[in-house]
C-alpha cells in the first residue's frame, strides 16, 4: 500500500460501513445534495425504512446521529424535521468554524505536520474535484460534497485535535446544506476548488496569518441564504 493509499485508509475511505452509517449517509444525501428534503420538512422513519428495506430501529439510530450533527431536529410526539436554521444559528456556525479551523491550521503549521505525500494527496483531491466539476449531472453532487469534506477532514486529522475534528465535521455538513440552498452547484464547486487551492498554498508556504485573516473575513456570511428566510415553519417549541 502506498503512502497516499495509507492516508486514505486512515480517513476511512477503505473501511466497511455499518448499516446505520449507510442509512445515515442515505438521509444526509437527500438533505444536502438531492434537495428532496427542504428546511422544515418532516423525515418519516417508516418511509426511509421502506425505501431502504431495513428495520425502523436502524433508521431511528441513524436519525439520532443526524440530530446530533444538527441536520435534523426532534420534536416530541411529532417526529424528526430538517433543521430550519435561524439567522443567529447560521452566524454562530460560521464563527465556530473560523475559531476551530484557526487552531487546526496553527498547530499544523507550527509543528510542520504535513509531509510531501500529504500535500500530494490533497492535490489529488483538488484534481478529482476539477474533473467532477466538468460533468453536468446531478449524480455527482454527493461525490463532490464527499470530496470537499475529505479535503478538510484530512487536514483536521493531521492536527490530532480529535474533539475539534468531530465538531468541525458536524458543522461542515450543516454548512454544505446552507450553501446548497443559496448557490447553484457549479458556483458552489468553483468556490470549493478555489478555496482548497488557496488553503493548500498557504499550508505549503506556512502562511498561517493569511489563512487566519481569510477565515475571519469569511467567518460570518454577508448574505443569509434566501431559502432560510422564506421558510417560517413553526415547530411550537
Q: What is the spatial order of strands in the main beta sheet?
A: 1-3-2
Tell me the CATH architecture of the largest domain.
Up-down Bundle
* Largest beta-sheet details: 3 strands, antiparallel
User: How much strand content do the residues show?
Assistant: under 5%
Q: SSE order, as H and E?
A: HHEHHEEHHHHHHH
N/C terminus separation: 52 Å
CATH superfamily of the largest domain: GntR ligand-binding domain-like
What is the arithmetic mean of pLDDT?
A: 79
Here the CATH topology of the largest domain equals Four Helix Bundle (Hemerythrin (Met), subunit A)
Using only C-alpha atoms, the radius of gyration works out to: 18 Å
Low-confidence stretches: 1-15, 219-237
State the helix count. 11
| Share of residues in helices | 55-70%
> What is the tally of beta strands?
3
Top CATH class of the largest domain: Mainly Alpha
Instruction: Please tell me the total number of domains.
Output: 2
Structural class: mainly alpha
What overall geometry do the principal axes of the alpha carbons give? globular
What does this entry look like structurally?
The chain is mostly helical. It folds into two domains: 3-85, Arc Repressor Mutant, subunit A (Orthogonal Bundle), CATH 1.10.10.10; 87-228, GntR ligand-binding domain-like (Four Helix Bundle (Hemerythrin (Met), subunit A)), CATH 1.20.120. It has helices at 3-11, 19-32, 45-52, 56-69, 87-110, 116-133, 141-159, 162-182, 185-204, 208-218, 226-230; strands at residues 42-43, 72-75, 79-82. A three-stranded antiparallel β-sheet has the order 1-3-2. A hairpin with a 3-residue loop joins strand 2 and strand 3 (79-82). The longest helix is centred in the middle third of the chain and has 24 residues, at 87-110. The model is unreliable at 1-15 and 219-237 (pLDDT under 50).
Amino acid at each position: 500500500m502506498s503512502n497516499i493509499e495509507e492516508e486514505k485508509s486512515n480517513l476511512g475511505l477503505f473501511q466497511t460501513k455499518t448499516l446505520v452509517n449507510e442509512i445515515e449517509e442515505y438521509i444526509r444525501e437527500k438533505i444536502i445534495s438531492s434537495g428532496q428534503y427542504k428546511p422544515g420538512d418532516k423525515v418519516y422513519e417508516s418511509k426511509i425504512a421502506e425505501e431502504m428495506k431495513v428495520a425502523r430501529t436502524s433508521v431511528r439510530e441513524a436519525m439520532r446521529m443526524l440530530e446530533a450533527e444538527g441536520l435534523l431536529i426532534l420534536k416530541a410526539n411529532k417526529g424528526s424535521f430538517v433543521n430550519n436554521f435561524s439567522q443567529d444559528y447560521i452566524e454562530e456556525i460560521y464563527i465556530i468554524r473560523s475559531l476551530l479551523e484557526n487552531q487546526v491550521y496553527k498547530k499544523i503549521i507550527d509543528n510542520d505536520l504535513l509531509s510531501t505525500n500529504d500535500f500530494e494527496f490533497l492535490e489529488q483531491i483538488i484534481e478529482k474535484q476539477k474533473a467532477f466539476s466538468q460533468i453536468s449531472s446531478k449524480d455527482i453532487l454527493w461525490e463532490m460534497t464527499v470530496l470537499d469534506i475529505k479535503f478538510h477532514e484530512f487536514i483536521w486529522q493531521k492536527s490530532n485535535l480529535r474533539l475539534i475534528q468531530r465538531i468541525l465535521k458536524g458543522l461542515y455538513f450543516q454548512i454544505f446544506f446552507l450553501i446548497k440552498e443559496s448557490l447553484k452547484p457549479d458556483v458552489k464547486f468553483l468556490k470549493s476548488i478555489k478555496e482548497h487551492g488557496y488553503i493548500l498554498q498557504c499550508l505549503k508556504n506556512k502562511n498561517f496569518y493569511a489563512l487566519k485573516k481569510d477565515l475571519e473575513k469569511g467567518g460570518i456570511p454577508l448574505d443569509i441564504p434566501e431559502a432560510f428566510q422564506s421558510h417560517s415553519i413553526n415547530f411550537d417549541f
